[in-house]
Design brief:
The chain is an all-alpha fold. It contains 37 helices and 6 strands. The strands form 3 sheets. It has a two-stranded antiparallel sheet. The chain has a two-stranded antiparallel sheet with strand order 3-4. The two termini are about 90 Å apart.
Length: about 1450
């Protein structure tokens, strides 16, 4: 809108103003400027721009309300007018005068030519005969065509009849086949129950009852086939009818085309054939109905016969099922399931597998002991084996415990399974109730205990004994194997410790040798590194030197240090040779000591070395040593040499055999060893595994447990002693093999070769060392000398380049200062020219354009100066900094390794560069001071010329505003009035928008599912208010019906208030729609209608009424806003005009200018048009609500209420019934207990007292039960009556509230006339209604522009309670004395009006009341039947009890016992 206004201003402005504005827009298109300032006066025609809000609202209203009735009629009238204009334009115009004259001349000539008649033709009679002959032939041909068309029609109809007859016969044949197929299918389904009954007992009850289900499906399928057959026959007739119609149509067309007879005769002929066809079709339909009825009757008879046959089969199945069930149970007991259960066999097999697995694990562990090389035999490994053995024992124990627990659990489960099987058998036999199969037993339990339970117990007991035997055998075997493993682990721990000692001592020997060698080499390398570091320092000093004198001195010092390094090489070689010559003797001594230690564990001993007396030793000590040597030799005399140990360089004697070592380790007695060996040599099959275990019988008393079939369940396992003896022998060999390996390892060092290598390395070092003096001279000294000279030349070139760039920057600064002075002069000249054009402006926009151009000039000057300033700042800051950065980069290059600058050179060049940088910073400071000085003057240069221009511009604006009422001061009255008018129009638009949103919300509520209880969470959110909050604050329950009524109530109140504000109603009807005259509906309480004018009662009632009033006022304030308390539309406009005239008089010296008078008149007209458009939209809303939206309102209102009432009804009856469920269960349990206690033993005269007490207890229970039944009826009746009263009250109140709200909805005829209404067609009363008024003698227009009055009857008040007046329901005290007339009473009649919406409300209320009545009737019937069944069940139990008591007492007649008490309670 603002863009279009801007374009109109450009079109209406003078040419020069337009061009300047276009330049401004082209220069800065991205800026948004104000179109009209407060102090400006718009151009001609721009005064109507304030109507934009009104136009926008009207456009939106037209878009949203285009489907309304009045607007559509108006648009149609407009379209008719346009069509009339277009038709008038296209209507043929009278011909031109020249054409008329020419046509008149031609007519005269024709009239003159009529006097000249031509002579008769002599051949005319002959021609006439020919013409008549042709005419006769033509008529004959038409008759022939007529006959042919009739014959063709008859043939096609015959063909169609034959085709339809054939289709009917085919359909009948198919139907007969389906009927026969259904009969065969039924016979096939019943065959297993009637003929093939051998396997009938195998079938389950589901299968037997499935036969009945299948029979029902067959019957249903047969009925479907009959329906399809009927539909097929009807389809054939319909097809025949359609095709016959086509033939009749073709016949009519052919006869009409033949034109032999007149159309009336043709119509009568076709009508006769049509009647014949209809008679045939009607007869066919009658025959189809008769045939279908016969087929359905046959189907029903067949279904009854099938059900009878099925019931006979069911009785036979129960007998056979009893015998089959008992046989299956005995088969299970005698089967492996209880004799030798597969599950238990699997568990025992798992125990046996676990035995073998554990034993194999121990064998593997022992094998690992003996197979481990001495190198791998450590205390850690031994402890790991010990942990593995412990873990194996723990796992074995846990596994056996789990298995034994599983076995016990399996036996217990098997016992429970057996009991469950017997229990299931008892229940199934009781269900079958085949007493003929019980024999001499009185009950099914005694039959089971006598014949089936004993064999089951026998099998279970044998399984428990087997479990005890298995547990004992496994425990003893595990204990024996664990002892052997413990002794072997202790032995191998000792061997492992000696092995670790051997490796430790050998590592120490090797480490000492290597350590001495490494220390010597390390010291040499450290000294060598130190010397090389010193040489590097000499190199660094030479590279860092900046003068030739320093280079010469450093070269001489390096030569002297190389001479000292040569002597150090010789000293290192002599020390290393001494270490290598000492190593072989230490190895021999170490190996003999370690071998002696292993011989003690392996049953071996070393031959002692010859005793060599020491001359320097003490004589007594020497004598004792000689004696000890003799004693040792005596002990070893006679021992055989162990040849496998001679490889160690010493003689080894065998002190003990491997079997002795085994016995010593395991602590096994010789008797036990002999027994084990004999058992091992016996021809017993080896155990499963590696063949290393044998089965031993420890004692004759220990028996191996067996299963029912004789198979053993455990494996008897133990270690093989011969296998252990062989492993001990292998261990000796393994130890000495490792000792030989260690000897070879220690002797692998070739000391001769090592010493020769030391001498060779010394010779190589000395030869390389001699060439290092030449390296210092050639590689270090000479290159550095040439590098220093090159660096000096490069530094001088860099300084020259920096100086040239600095001089160029000084010259650029001078040029930029001159350019700024030139821009200043041009800016002043432009403003001076623009000041001269201010007098030419006639409107404020033109002056604003000049002011904007001046601002643009100032901005352009400012931008140019800023650009120059930026360049100057660059030259004052960044340019010198770039030169400084270049110097820094040069120093960085000097510091980099590529150019090979030394540290001394870097320090020298850094001092030179710092001096150059100081000069550059001085020049940069001078340039920056000059730039800052120009920057301070820049604002003054811009503002001084602009200030002079703005002063003259202000004078021009003041003069123009005073003369034409523009500007902030002189335009204030107009702007104020315009703002108030726009606010008034905007407030009405806002209210209509709010109303539109609320009506959409109401429409969404009406679109909710009908016949369902609607929860608040599924509803859309109301855009303006939330009624749920008012329910919560008032403490009232929220229901959907109240939400629906509340929203509609607010909509109606809003329409009334807004219509009153807009003065949209006729004067004589306006008082009806004032808010004070509208009833205050009770929204928060569903069972009440209106709020009383004067509140009397308790504080709670006053609070609820106050909440209702607060709900209406709060919601209306949110929807209407300021309109809620505003005056009428014309009143507000008059007030605005009065205030505007008063303000104008104050501003313009007690006068109202002409432009202000014209503006107020235009504003008043615009406000009137806006009010009429708003009133039109309001009327359309009311019509749409009455004619469309609210027609769905009754269904959702009463449907949801009825669904909620039905839900509450069912919930209430369920709660009423559940109140005594526990008590009834207690009564039933007591009666069952009493029946169990009533056994034949009570017939003994000695038990008379016990029988009497039992009878009295049952009498007391029965009396309480009958009283409880009466109480249940009373409670249920009270609940149902309360629900009935509440529903009637809610339905009546809801209907009355809806009627009151609908009565307040404005009528179309109550609105004041609007432009275009005269073209709309007024609805007319129907002729039927006019005749009714004429017959009744009432005036047709007695209601005027209103609705006819009508009294709407209420709902029946007591119809629901009447359903509870019959027996067995208790008497209704409130209706005890009610007459038939009272029972027919209805709720209060409502005085209202008649309209389609009122009728819809009344009709749907009745419909949903009938629905609730049907549900209530069904609930009463169902609950009454349940309670009567409960009471009948109790009475039947009492009769059974009395019969049992009479049987116990003989033929004694029943006295006043429980039966009499029960009958009294029932009465």
């Amino acid at each position: 809108r603002r863009i279009s206004t801007w374009q109109r201003r450009l079109e209406r402005a003078p040419p020069h103003s337009t061009s300047h504005a276009q330049k401004a827009m082209a220069r800065r298109p991205h800026e948004q400027r104000t179109v009209l300032l407060p102090h400006e006066e718009p151009v001609a025609g721009f005064a109507q721009s304030f109507q934009a809000s009104h136009n926008l609202a009207r456009s939106l209203s037209r878009d949203k309300k285009s489907s309304a009735t009045g607007q559509v009629a108006y648009l149609q009238k407009k379209a008719q007018q346009l069509a009339y204009v277009e038709e008038a334009r296209q209507r043929p115009r009278p011909p031109l005068e020249s054409i008329v004259a020419q046509q008149e001349l031609i007519g005269d000539l024709r009239r003159d030519a009529a006097d000249h008649v031509s002579r008769a033709d002599p051949q005319k009679p002959a021609l006439r005969e020919q013409r008549m002959a042709r005419q006769g032939a033509f008529l004959a041909s038409r008759e022939s065509r007529h006959e042919v068309a009739s014959q063709d029609y008859e043939k096609e109809m015959d063909t169609l009849a034959e085709e339809c007859q054939q289709k009917t016969q085919e359909a009948s044949s198919r139907m007969k086949g389906r009927v026969d197929e259904a009969s065969d299918r039924a016979d096939a389904l019943l065959d297993p129950l009637e003929k093939n009954t051998e396997e009938l007992g195998v079938k389950t009850e589901e299968q037997v009852r499935g036969v009945m289900t299948a029979l029902e499906r067959v019957t249903a399928r047969r009925r479907q086939d009959i329906s399809k057959f009927e539909a097929e026959l009807f389809g054939i007739d319909n097809d025949r009818k359609e095709r016959s119609v086509l033939l009749l149509r073709g016949l009519a067309e052919a006869l009409t085309a033949a034109a032999h007879k007149v159309p009336g005769e043709i119509e009568r002929l076709v009508e006769k054939k049509t009647l014949d066809l209809d008679a045939v079709l009607l007869e066919n339909q009658k025959a189809v109905k008769v045939l279908t009825s016969k087929l359905l009757v046959q189907t029903l008879e067949a279904s009854k016969a099938n059900k009878y046959r099925w019931h006979e089969g069911l009785v036979l199945w129960k007998q056979k099922r009893h015998r089959h069930t008992v046989e299956l149970c005995m088969q299970r007991i005698c089967s492996p399931e209880f004799e030798q259960p597969p599950g238990m066999v699997d568990l025992l097999g798992t125990v046996k597998d676990q035995q073998c697995k554990v034993f194999d694990g121990r064998i593997e562990l022992v094998t690992a002991f003996f197979a481990a090389p001495l190198q791998g035999l450590t205390t850690g490994n031994t402890r790991a084996w010990e942990e593995q053995n412990t873990m194996l024992n723990d796992k074995a124990g846990d596994a056996f415990d789990r298995l034994f627990a599983d076995l016990k659990s399996f036996v217990d489960d098997l016992d429970a399974s057996g009991e469950s099987m017997l229990k299931t058998l008892v229940e199934e036999l009781k269900v079958h109730d085949a007493r003929a199969e019980w024999g001499e037993h009185e009950s099914v339990d005694s039959l089971i205990d006598a014949d089936i339970r004993p064999p089951l117990k026998e099998h279970l007991e044998s399984l428990r004994k087997l479990l005890i035997s298995v547990t004992g055998n496994v425990s003893r075997q595990e204990e024996a194997q664990h002892t052997v493993m413990t002794q072997l682990l202790a032995y191998f721990m000792g061997v492992a410790k000696k092995g670790e000692n051997l490796r430790k001592r050998m590592d120490e020997l090797d480490m000492n040798y290597k350590g001495e060698e490494d220390d010597c080499i390390h010291d040499f390398k450290e000294e060598l590194a130190k010397n090389e570091g010193q040489m590097k320092k000499f190199k660094e000093m030479i590279d860092d030197a900046a003068h030739h004198e320093d280079l010469d001195g450093l070269k001489q010092k390096a030569f002297d240090f190389l001479n000292s390094m040569e002597q150090h090489y010789r000293d290192h070689a002599a020390q290393l040779l001494e270490i290598h010559n000492r190593y072989p003797g230490n190895v021999v001594t170490f190996l003999r000591d370690q071998t002696a230690g292993f011989c003690q564990e392996l049953g071996l001993v070393l031959e002692p070395l010859p005793h060599e007396p020491n001359a320097d030793a003490d004589p007594q000590a020497a004598a004792e040593a000689a004696k000890a040597a003799e004693t040792m030799a005596a002990e070893l005399e006679g021992l055989a040499e162990w040849t496998e140990g001679s490889r160690e360089g010493c003689k080894v004697l065998e002190k003990m055999f491997p079997a002795d070592v085994r016995d010593k380790v395991l602590a096994v007695s010789s008797a036990k060893v002999s027994e084990a060996v004999a058992a091992a040599e016996a021809p017993t099959p080896p155990a499963e595994g590696d063949g290393e275990a044998v089965e031993l019988e420890e004692s004759t008393s220990q028996e191996v447990p067996t299963l029912h079939d004789g198979s053993t369940v455990l494996a008897m396992l133990d270690f093989d002693l011969q296998w252990l003896e062989g492993n001990f022998g292998t261990l000796r060999t393994t130890v000495f093999i490792q000792l030989n390996t260690d000897r070879e390892r220690l002797g692998r060092i070739d000391t001769t070769a090592v010493t020769e290598e030391v001498r060779r390395q010394l010779d190589q070092r000395l030869r390389r060392h001699t060439n290092r003096k030449g390296e210092v001279q050639v590689d270090w000294y000479v290159p550095r000398y040439s590098t220093v000279a090159k660096h000096k030349d490069k530094f001088e070139r860099h300084l020259v380049e920096v100086v040239k760039k600095s001089q160029g920057h000084d010259e650029t600064v001078q040029e930029l200062c001159a350019q700024m002075e030139k821009e200043e002069n041009r800016y002043k000249e432009q403003l001076e020219r623009l000041r001269g054009r201010l007098a030419e402006a006639e409107t404020l926009p033109m002056l604003t354009a000049f002011e904007r151009q001046a601002g643009d000039m100032a901005a352009a000057f400012w931008e140019a100066c800023q650009a120059i300033k930026g360049k100057l700042l660059y030259l004052a800051t960044r340019a010198p900094q770039e030169l400084v950065k270049a110097n820094k980069d040069f120093l960085n290059i000097c510091r980099s390794a590529e150019e090979q600058y030394s540290q001394s050179e870097v320090l020298f060049y850094s001092s030179e560069v710092e001096e150059v940088n100081s000069q550059l910073e001085k020049k940069a400071k001078e340039r920056e001071d000059r730039t800052r000085e120009l920057e301070e003057q820049l604002d003054e240069k811009k503002q001084e010329p602009l200030k002079a221009f703005m002063e003259q511009y202000a004078e021009a604006v003041e003069d123009l505003s005073a003369s034409k009422g523009y500007g902030k001061k002189y335009g204030k009255p107009r702007r104020k009035a315009q703002g108030l008018c726009r606010a008034l129009i905007a407030s009405s638009v806002t209210v209509r928008q709010n109303l539109s949103e609320i009506v959409e919300y109401l429409d969404a509520l009406c679109g909710q599912p009908v016949d369902e209880v609607i929860d608040f969470s599924v509803l859309p959110r109301c855009p303006k208010f939330r009624l749920r909050n008012y329910f919560d604050s008032a403490g009232e329950p929220w229901v959907f019906a109240a939400e629906l009524l509340g929203v509609l109530y607010i909509v109606v109140c809003t329409l009334s208030v807004l219509g009153t504000h807009l003065q949209a109603f006729k004067e004589d009807r306006a008082s009806l729609y004032k808010l004070a005259n509208l009833p205050v509906i009770r929204v928060l309480r569903e069972a009440e209608v209106l709020c009383p004018a004067e509140v009397a009662g308790d504080e709670a009632t006053k609070a609820v009424v106050s909440a209702e009033q607060g709900l209406r006022q709060g919601c209306l304030e949110m929807v209407l806003g300021e309109v809620f308390k505003a005056d009428t539309w014309d009143g507000v406009i008059k007030s605005v005009i009065t205030d505007a005239q008063k303000d104008s008089q104050e501003t313009f010296k007690a006068t109202v200018p002409d432009f202000m008078t014209k503006f107020l008149a235009d504003m008043q007209e615009t406000a009137r048009v806006a009010r009429l458009e708003a009133a039109r939209g309001l009327r359309e809303w009311a019509d749409k609500l009455r004619d469309e939206t609210l027609l769905r309102f009754p269904d959702i209102l009463f449907g949801e209420l009825t669904a909620r009432a039905i839900t509450e009804l069912r919930q209430g009856t369920r709660e009423a019934q559940a109140a005594t469920v526990a008590t009834w269960a207690e009564f039933d349990a007591k009666r069952s207990a009493h029946e169990q206690r009533l056994h034949p033993g009570l017939s003994n005269p000695n038990a008379e007292e016990q029988l009497r007490e039992l009878i009295e207890a049952e009498a007391e229970r029965s009396e309480r039960a009958q009283a409880m039944a009466v109480e249940d009826f009373s409670r249920m009746a009270q609940c149902l009556r309360a629900q009935a009263d509440f529903v009637v009250q809610r339905l009546s109140a809801t209907f009355e509230s809806a009627i009151r709200i609908v009565d307040g909805l404005p009528l179309h005829t109550h609105f004041d006339a609007l432009p275009g209404d005269e073209q709309a067609e007024t609805p007319r009363m129907s002729i039927k209604r006019r005749m009714r008024h004429l017959h009744n003698g009432t005036s047709v227009d007695q209601w005027g522009d209103g609705l006819p009055e009508r009294k709407w009857p209420g709902v029946p008040r007591y119809d629901l309670r009447v359903l509870l007046r019959t027996k067995p329901w208790p008497d209704d005290e409130s209706l005890a004395e009610a007459t038939e007339e009272t029972l027919q009473e209805q709720t209060a009649t409502i005085d209202s009006f008649r309209s389609p919406l009122h009728k819809r409300l009344f009709e749907r209320r009745g419909f949903y009341y009938d629905r609730y009545l049907a549900e209530f009737r069904a609930e009463v019937k169902r609950r009454g039947a349940e309670l009567a069944s409960r009471s009948e069940h109790e009475q039947t139990g009492q009769r059974t009890w009395q019969s049992s008591v009479r049987q116990l007492r003989g033929e004694v007649a029943p006295g006043p016992g429980p039966g009499a008490v029960a009958e009294g309670a029932a009465s």
